[in-house]
Design a protein that fits this description.
The protein is mainly α and 392 residues long. It folds into three domains: 169 residues, no CATH class; 88 residues, no CATH class; 96 residues, no CATH class. The chain is 62% helix and 5% strand. A four-stranded mixed sheet has the order 1-4-2-3. This is ParB-like N-terminal domain-containing protein. It comes from marine sediment metagenome.
């Protein structure tokens, strides 16, 4: 078991080294940085804003537990690894999620023990770790009290972004960790709290941070536009969703509700009687006609939308050119809360726009805009229904 863990750890050395060189090259270009080759690791402390804070705390990664499991003086590598494997196996019986967190941490610790710390830890001048908290814990677990640390002073925005990207690069974050970290980054970058009113959160911005495709980035943007106290966000943060598509569907519906509420578009109660039936005379049938005449009914939204669309004239305009078409599609893509299917269609049209002929471009653009207009028309229909009810 110990040998297998050693082989597993050393097999990731190349990727580890590549990341190390990339980060080192980027950070060495900063004049405000210095490398401490023998930094006292006990002088550092973890950040409460680490995206992995949730999983590390949940697994019980503490100074006390690290000290208990750390490699002892004179203890051989195999003996130490056997002790760690026994700990993980016993933990796996009661808490497999925590066992996985510890197993990953142990792998890093073995790698550091056998091939040193290839990617230095990064901390600010106050000793708070910016990047590399797991490498820090792993070094202490391997009983390595000093190691290479970059000491760097940076703005809070840069620090938050660096910490998030570091964790995204190293390995996959859980959905709650990704959302928590991404919301913290976007709040710093945009200067506004995450929520439905933060229009600065775009798919392009999310994509640049998470390195995902348009569809995945649209999912994360929806999660980041939920209010802080929203029940859907709370379910996401406790890991209640096992399917991200289902989570996105619920988040999209919730954002649509919030958008309608903000615009004053609400579905009102129907069939409100003018008289209280409990006070009416059973033999008096005149109240029936009065009640019926005073009933308020809400028009069916789909019927209202179809009726409204039938009255709208067709749009006649010329096609934009290659560059203009791409710029226009980019603007359409920025419309808030478009469904993923439409976002994917926009991406397809953008990719096929340049080589396509005018006839194909016309068909693609017409199909796309009709679907976009259908989404936007829903707001007009709801607003019209709301006005009709107010007049009654």
């Amino acid at each position: 078991m110990a040998k297998a863990r050693t082989l597993l750890s050393t097999s990731s050395t190349d990727a580890h080294a590549e990341l190390a060189s990339q980060h080192a090259a980027a950070w060495n270009s900063q004049s405000s940085e210095r490398l401490d080759p023998k930094c006292d690791l006990t002088s550092l402390r973890p950040s409460p804003n680490n995206p992995r804070r949730r999983s590390l705390d949940r697994a019980g990664v503490t100074h006390e537990k690290i000290t208990e499991l750390a490699r002892r003086d004179g203890e051989g590598l195999d003996s130490w690894l056997d002790r760690l494997d026994d700990f993980c196996e016993s933990l796996r019986m009661s808490d497999p999620v925590a066992a996985t967190t510890w197993s990953e941490l142990i792998d890093i610790s073995v790698s550091i023990s056998t091939s040193e710390l290839l990617q230095p830890i990064v901390a600010n001048k106050q000793g708070i770790i910016i990047a590399g908290e797991r490498r820090w814990w792993a070094s202490l677990l391997a009983s390595i009290p000093v190691n290479r640390v970059f000491i760097r002073e940076m703005s809070s925005v840069t620090e938050t972004v660096s910490r998030f990207i570091e964790n995204v690069l190293r390995s996959d974050l859980s959905l709650p960790e990704m959302i928590s970290g991404l919301r913290a980054v976007l709040a710093e970058v945009t200067g506004e709290p995450c929520g439905p009113d933060n229009s600065k959160i775009t798919i392009k911005q999310v994509r640049s941070l998470v390195g995902k495709g348009t569809t995945q980035s649209a999912h994360y943007r929806a999660f980041c536009r939920l209010p802080e106290d929203d029940p859907i966000l709370q379910k996401l943060m406790v890991g209640a969703y096992s399917d991200k598509e289902v989570a996105y569907s619920d988040a999209s519906k919730r954002l649509d509700e919030l958008r309608r509420e903000k615009a004053g578009i609400q579905t009102k109660a129907t069939s409100i009687p003018a008289n209280d039936e409990s006070c009416a005379d059973p033999s008096d049938t005149s109240s029936e006609s009065t009640d019926k005449s005073n009933e308020r009914t809400t028009p069916d939204p789909k019927e209202a939308q179809s009726a409204m669309m039938a009255k709208l004239p067709p749009l006649r305009t010329r096609l934009p050119g290659t560059g203009g078409g791409k710029a226009f599609l980019h603007a359409v893509e920025s419309i808030p809360d478009l469904p993923v299917k439409i976002i994917e269609q926009i991406a397809t049209v953008k990719n096929e726009w340049e080589p396509a002929g005018d006839k194909t471009r016309r068909k693609m653009l017409q199909s796309l805009l009709n679907k976009v207009f259908d989404e936007l028309d829903a707001l007009d229909v709801a607003g019209s229904i709301d006005s009709q009810e107010d007049d009654q």
